[in-house]
Design goal:
It is built from 1 helix and 8 strands. By secondary structure, the protein is an alpha+beta fold. It folds into 2 domains: about 30 residues; about 100 residues, no CATH class. Strands 3-4-5-8-7-6 form a 6-stranded antiparallel beta sheet, with no helix packed on it. A two-stranded antiparallel ribbon has the order 1-2. A hairpin with a 4-residue loop joins strand 3 and strand 4. The chain is globular. It starts with a helix and ends with a strand. About 25% of the residues are buried.
Length: about 180
């Protein structure tokens, strides 16, 4: 019985590692930008959009991004302020996450991939279901993350992966 369990566990770990390596290889050959910096630059907070400028910012000369990302202080691919996916009847229903911005880097202390939940020191977040595929190549156990308040979508936060240079929308579920 123990032998069967050990074999099953070993197989599961090897498949999991192969899937992560495969996702990283796809990412490196895909259309997502791959910032190559010895020490990642943490971007400043995104600015709210001017009235009338609702289209996502696109990087000149590049195809549309498959994942929202930050390069040289510009937040590319951010959804329009009037996007109905971001409407919350009760923004900040679970309170506010206190330590946001580039001076606060976090490691994920726990995660539940099935529920799209991550725990950072200070609280739990649920990643937006439409942004969840962006996180496929992210390493929840080894990457660092920065949390920003979303200036265009009340009640939402932006969880930025320092290594990948990408971000997703998340709702704070409390401490």
């Amino acid at each position: 019985m123990r032998t069967h369990f050990a074999v099953a566990l070993s197989t599961l770990l090897m498949v999991s590692q192969a899937m992560q390596l495969s996702a990283q290889a796809r990412h490196e050959g895909g259309s997502r930008p791959s910032p190559v910096r010895p020490s990642p630059v943490i971007p400043h907070e995104p600015m709210a959009r001017e009235p009338g400028h609702t289209a996502p910012l696109a990087e000149p000369g590049r195809p549309p991004a498959t994942a929202p990302y930050v390069r040289d202080g510009h937040w590319y691919g951010h959804a329009a302020p009037d996007d109905p996916r971001f409407h919350l009847d009760h923004p900040f229903q679970s309170g506010h996450f206190g330590l946001v911005g580039p001076s606060h880097r976090y490691a994920v202390s726990r995660f539940d991939l099935a529920a799209r939940h991550i725990w950072l020191p200070g609280g739990m977040f649920e990643i937006a279901d439409w942004d969840w595929p962006v996180t496929t190549p992210w390493c929840w156990t080894c990457d660092q993350f920065v949390v920003y308040l979303d200036p265009d979508h009340p009640g939402w936060y932006l969880v930025y992966d320092v290594r990948m240079g990408e971000y997703v929308h998340a709702e704070f579920l409390g401490g």
